[in-house]
Amino acid sequence: DTGVSQDPRHKITKRGQNVTFRCDPISEHNRLYWYRQTLGQGPEFLTYFQNEAQLEKSRLLSDRFSAERPKGSFSTLEIQRTEQGDSAMYLCASSLMSGAYNEQFFGPGTRLTVL
Amino acid sequence: AQKVTQAQTEISVVEKEDVTLDCVYETRDTTYYLFWYKQPPSGELVFLIRRNSFDEQNEISGRYSWNFQKSTSSFNFTITASQVVDSAVYFCALSEALNQGGSEKLVFGKGTKLTVNP
User: Which residues of B touch A56 (CB under 8 A)?
Assistant: First the structure.
């Protein structure tokens, strides 16, 4: 399977703990996006990378959130001192910047539950 | 700022009925893209269609059809002869075009939950 993969698929943690999620984009895709989807809502943009550079961050991305994409391949999203409001599905998408429009392919998501 | 509104939160139909999902968008961009995604209970977003802002032709793909009207900033989605497998949450989304110099991030509506009953 050469689609976008995310790990873990589910994470349950206690408030105050740190968590880290991983996203492996489609090989050769140079753009990588993180979105967050809370219950009953559409996905909301968090941040994106072009290669290893983080080029845009949403105001939703508080100081407790950090994302990296070393070497422009996989990406990690870390949440420090988790809060119950962080409970959501975290979606990763990747695209190949090559033309007028570059379709984003989504992974299956990581569902985070903060107790 | 870009915004997508899906006024219908939930729709319930009986199998074989036609159903239309509404989408209204706001943007200041002159070039943009509109999308529909399907999210079944498994949670993964499934791409259905992309439409360029310069192309107002309606499109039909099997039982699915899309009506793009720039004059009313709407991009509605119709399922003809609905089936139980169409039950899912459907999202309309908007993206700026790459030549606007941006990220091409997707701005989603809140979704419409469609339930097709046998």
Answer: 102-103, 105
